[in-house]
UniProtKB/TrEMBL annotation:
Annotated Pfam families: Polyketide_cyc2
Stored SUPFAM superfamilies: Bet v1-like
One GO cellular component, as annotated: nucleus
Places the protein is found: Nucleus
Protein name: Uncharacterized protein
Source organism: Eleusine coracana subsp. coracana
Gene3D superfamilies: 3.30.530.20
Length: 99
C-alpha cells in the first residue's frame, strides 16, 4: 500500500451511539449541527466552517481546535469533511395499514 493510501486510511472513522430514551426529533437538531461540536465538548476551543458558509450539507468542511492550557496556541486540530447526512432516517414513520 502506498504511503498516501495508508495515511488516508488511518484518518477515516465513524461515530455511532444509541440513545434509547431520547426521541429522534429531540436529538437530531443537536447531532445535525456539524459546526456546533464545541457546544458538546467544552474543552474544544474552535469549531467553525472552513469555507465561510454555515450551511450543513455533505461536502462542507469544519476546522476544530483545542488550545494549549492557559494559551491561545493551537495544541491539537482537525479538518473534517461531512461525507453523509442521513436526515431521512430520522423522519421514518411506521408503515400505515392499507385502506
Amino acid at each position: 500500500m502506498e504511503k498516501q493510501e495508508q495515511e488516508q486510511e488511518q484518518w477515516q472513522g465513524a461515530v455511532e451511539t444509541r440513545l434509547p430514551s431520547t426521541p429522534a426529533a429531540a436529538a437530531w437538531p443537536h447531532i445535525a449541527d456539524f459546526f456546533a461540536l464545541h457546544r458538546y465538548l467544552p474543552t474544544m476551543d474552535v469549531c467553525k466552517p472552513v469555507d465561510g458558509s454555515d450551511e450543513v450539507r455533505p461536502g462542507c468542511v469544519r476546522y476544530c481546535a483545542f488550545f494549549a492550557p492557559g494559551t491561545e496556541e493551537v495544541a491539537t486540530w482537525a479538518r473534517e469533511e461531512l461525507v453523509e447526512l442521513h436526515q431521512a432516517l430520522v423522519h421514518l414513520e411506521p408503515p400505515r395499514p392499507p385502506p
